[in-house]
Amino acid sequence: MSRGHTEKNRMQYQFPIFENLCPSWEKIAPLGVRCVYPKGAQILNLESHVNGVYYVIEGSVEIMLYTLQGPEKVLFYVGPGCIFGEVSCFVNAESGESDEASVRARTDCVVVYFTREQIEGTIANQYPQLLLELIRATAYKVRMYGVLLRDSLSSDHFIRVCKMLVYLTRFKAGPLVAGQNRVAFQPEMTQNDMARLMGIHRVTVTKAVSRLKQMGIILRFSKSSLVIADFPGLCQLIEKSEL
After folding, report:
1. Per-residue CA distances from 193 to 1, 20, 135, 164, 186 (Å)
2. Domain residues of the chain, as ranges?
3. What is the predicted pLDDT for the residue at 172?
4. What is the domain class of 14-145 according to CATH?
């Protein structure tokens, strides 16, 4: 296994996008209720009665933290091949309310809803391996929270943006060759999207990206194209900050 492939596996789910962690759930999609949501549609809110989990077939959703004043921060995205709603289903089982977060369609999306009764009955008895995938997906989310909390406590905003760019590259660009300088890919994410995931102002991300452009590390960052001219240099900025 190449060094680049190993690093991608290690870094992949430190970035708050989760997909393809529960692929086996698609084979039982006919057991659930298929739902189609247009971009921007509210799937869950504070008043929603939740007694199951959702599996994403197509598109993606965003999980947002709620306060008394409304949505405050995007926590993470869930894409194809992954589950969401497990916290409301199992932690808030008695009330059945999604009282800690809301879910909105980030793009046009197709999801399948499975009730808790199905999970504890048919799925647990006939498809136990699916529960292992659900546990793995939850573990990756917990890991992501730990990493992002560490970054928010120990790094300034510029270094945090650098780390998020590294995480995004590991997630989207595929295996990297050792010593590879130039990396180009489609991030499917704007600078504003990154700011929302980080819980900081968009201008802060824009200033950090502009600084990296002046340093010759980044050439372009848009939703359709992220071009990094000096990926080792980007990583070195992070390493120097941690010494």
Report:
1. 33, 21, 27, 12, 14
2. 14-145, 155-242
3. 84
4. mainly beta
